[in-house]
UniProtKB/TrEMBL annotation:
Belongs to the PspA/Vipp/IM30 family. InterPro entries: PspA_VIPP1. Pfam families: PspA_IM30. This is PspA/IM30 family protein. PANTHER family: MEMBRANE-ASSOCIATED PROTEIN VIPP1, CHLOROPLASTIC, PHAGE SHOCK PROTEIN A.
Length: 245
């Protein structure tokens, strides 16, 4: 009953459709992790059951081989006793001949008994051999399915990480689009241009103020000349004016 239960579980797990299970799971990665654990536990249990079944089969095979060998040994003893009886009978010793014939009969009876025991166990051995082969095949299928699950889980994790990385890149791109650094540079450049214009304006203003100062100096010099000439006229008349020229 236990072996049949293990065999049924092996068959069920081996036939599991991994993709269908993933599609129906709310969290495929968690589902796969749990399935890998379940497969690992069931494989360990199945291996123990298969090992026990194989061990029992080997015991049956050993007992069968022993029965076959025992039957052969009794057959050899029956043959030896029968030949001895023939020798005594040929020599005229009927009593001894009958004695060894009786021993041969006993040996043949034991031979038949051992052969019967060997035949009785042969169907069981054949059945167990078939079960062992199915268990081995199912166990191998389970191991293959487990490896498939591990590969699927690893692939899923890798794809999830890749999708997350792509999402982060897309978010970063959106952030760049929202706060375009080139627009910030443009604003900064415009601010500098305004500052440069202000400096040029201040420079022009300073230059015009300096020109006005020089012009005032020239006006002052002319006024001084006029005053000097007027003073000369008053003090010396035309001669002073002419010498001044």
């Amino acid at each position: 009953m236990v072996k049949q239960s293990i065999f049924g579980r092996i068959a069920q797990l081996a036939k599991a459709n991994v993709n269908a299970i993933i599609d129906s799971a709310e969290d495929p990665q968690l589902m796969l992790d749990q399935m890998v654990r379940d497969y690992t536990d069931n494989i360990a249990e199945a291996e123990s059951a298969v090992a026990q079944t194989i061990g029992n089969l080997r015991l049956l095979q050993e007992d069968h081989a022993e029965d076959v060998q025992t039957a052969a040994d009794w057959g050899n003893k029956a043959l030896a006793a029968s030949r001895k009886a023939d020798e005594f009978r040929a020599s005229g010793s009927t009593a001894d001949a009958e004695k060894f014939d009786n021993l041969a009969k006993v040996a043949i009876q034991r031979q038949l008994q051992s052969e019967g025991e060997a035949r009785t166990v042969e169907p069981t051995i054949a059945s167990q051999e078939e079960i062992v082969e199915k268990l081995k095949s199912g166990l191998q299928a389970m191991k293959y399915k487990r490896q498939e699950l591990v590969s699927k889980r690893d692939e899923l994790i890798a794809r999830a990480k890749s999708a997350q990385a792509q999402s982060q890149v897309q978010d970063a791109i959106k952030s760049i689009d929202i706060m375009d650094p080139t627009s910030e540079v443009s604003r900064f450049e415009e601010k500098i241009r305004h500052e440069e214009a202000r400096v040029r304006g201040a420079s022009e203003l300073a230059a015009s103020s300096l020109d006005a100062q020089f012009e005032s100096l020239e006006d002052l010099g002319e006024q001084t000349e006029i005053e000097a000439r007027l003073a000369a006229l008053k003090s010396g008349g035309q001669a002073a004016l002419g010498s001044g020229s």
